[in-house]
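Exam prep: given the inputs below (a chain plus zinc ion), describe the expected output before reading on.
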Amino acid sequence: MSELDDKALLRYSRHILLPQIDIAGQEKLLAARALIVGAGGLGSPVALYLASAGVGRITLADDDTVELGNLQRQIAHDMASLGVNKARSAAARMHAMNPGVEIVALEVRLGGEALHKEVASHDVVIDCSDNFGTRQAINRAAVAARVPLVSGAAVAFAGQLAVFDARDAQSPCYHCLYPDEGAVGDGPCATFGVLSPLVGVVGSLQAVEAIKLLCGQPASVGRLTLYDAHDGLFRHLKLARDPACAVCGTGVSS
Ligand SMILES: [Zn+2]
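Solution:
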């Protein structure tokens, strides 16, 4: 028997109509815990879609505050959010959209032991950060805790998406793909600019993959999706696991 009440059946009816989700899948979503790191351009659509989709517990971490230059693309925030912490601002919007899900706003830059602890206590982590150091740290935590990681990035007209699942012995990790730890600095958007809806495209793709993972559907593990917004083209590359990867492998080249 379903434990969903009439209001929940109505709210999630368009999910329940999908045979791939149905009531069982929706109940899985409502019981699931998702961690979103970053409440900016990528984090905005991820946060809004996971809340509206009924992911039962969503933790959102960001230490930054909303500025005018963010509103070109960070759609979880508005003029009233200027100067407010981004996690808190997005959490308010998520709660207004769906008060039935629990939202935890962490107004910190997650790192070190705190990051490992948060990743380990969620069913999926969605990397919506904007710097290479944080991406590598999230990957290390996800591999250590065997929590699937949905990674997204967007700069200028170029977007990319990849899903890594450390529960799967064949899955590569983010470090297999980008082994050079110190290659890129902070804040690509601040440096290079980014097309406003590009972050919406990539963030929406991240939300799709997270929802599939949480309701037991196969996600796009082991594949890099590249989106060229300028030419309007998607490309897909198969990713191989590096057995010598310093994070998920032996750390020793053969
Ligand atoms: Zn690896």
